[in-house]
Amino acid sequence: MGDRPVATRFPRSVAARHNRPLVPTKIRRPHVNDTAEVLAEVRGNTGFITLNRPRALNALSLAMVRELHRILLQWRDDPAIAAIAIRGNGREGPFGAFCAGGDIRFLHQAACDGNPALEDFFTEEYQLNHLTHHLGKPYIAFMDGVVMGGGMGISQGASLRIVTERTRMAMPETAIGLFPDVGGGYFLGRAPGHVGEWLALTGSTIGAGDAVAFQLADGVVPAARLAALWDGLAGDFADGAAITQYVRQHFVPAESPASAYLAAINSVFALPSVKAIVDALEAAGGQGDAGAADWARDTAATLRKRSPLMLHVVLEQIRRARSMGLADDLRMERDLVRHCFYLRDDRRHNSETIEGIRALAVDKDHQPHWKPGRIEEVDPAEVAAFFRSPWPAALHPLAGLG
């Protein structure tokens, strides 16, 4: 059918269940060569979304955020659609990459240029993140391949989060002088024990079994079975519960390698400050079991490479968010991101975030010049400034989130 819009077709039984004639919806049918960045179609009583920016690992643009929001609102309010599924196209076709996050090169350029689209991006992305948690029907995320940053933001609200042996999941924002946003405080803060602090501070990448063990995924499906499961969702199901049951019967067990270090994670990352955490890791790196010592030493070395200022901000973020609802967490994160991209009066150098993106994605020298340069030099007053909202509550960009 090519790129020509076609009418969505529903089984007769779907119309009968809702006791009304169905009006066909003009939605594009996806195929591998389609140039749109978000593809959508309805088959059976399931809506299917495919992120289609494979060369960028489906990193989210502002246009993609807006299109996802439009589609989800339309399908949320359509009683003929019982469930929604989302996946990413990889370079070889469907699956293989879910979403690597937001388009950080755009964010860097927009910040340097003073482009107001930067503000729009974060406000609208966080509104989208909130929406995914409140669709009122099964939302099924096929989290195959890379799932990082903004990719977590559009999948953690899913009622079914599917991972595979190819899943590489992380919130790596401290590596670019940012913090785990898109609701990261909310979902990492609800991981068991102090796993949330570990993942948020280090940006460590985990696989499928760890994601399930740490309550960041619901089940594992082998990558080779994804296509059949995806197509199977186009069947004529009685309701969303039947679709959920159908998906769950495809789950298989998987091991969690990181669980071997769970006791150490819970002990060290429960400590009250970043300095205490790093000191404990560096002390443990020189003693005890070789495996545990290696883990502690490597973890400490990772933290020493991150932005010292943002490590302090992130630890405070996760611990505040643990007692917050999603909307309040997103409002806090919107405050934080404003401080990250705009210079404050007390700073006469580029923000940590602009510098971090420069080093990683623009100049690619991987030599960020963090200020201050050491964890021990961070001023608590500078950390506290991040948590003061630049807006009155009634005028906050996310004031309408409930």
Automatic annotation (TrEMBL):
GO terms for molecular function: 3-hydroxyisobutyryl-CoA hydrolase activity; isomerase activity. Gene3D superfamilies: 2-enoyl-CoA Hydratase, Chain A, domain 1. InterPro entries: ClpP/crotonase-like_dom_sf (IPR029045), ECH_dom (IPR045004), HIBYL-CoA-H (IPR032259). Keywords: Hydrolase, Isomerase. NCBIfam families: PRK05617.1 (NF004127). SUPFAM superfamilies: ClpP/crotonase. This is Enoyl-CoA hydratase/isomerase family protein. The keyword Methyltransferase does not apply. Residues 47-387 form the Enoyl-CoA hydratase/isomerase domain. GO terms for biological process: L-valine catabolic process.
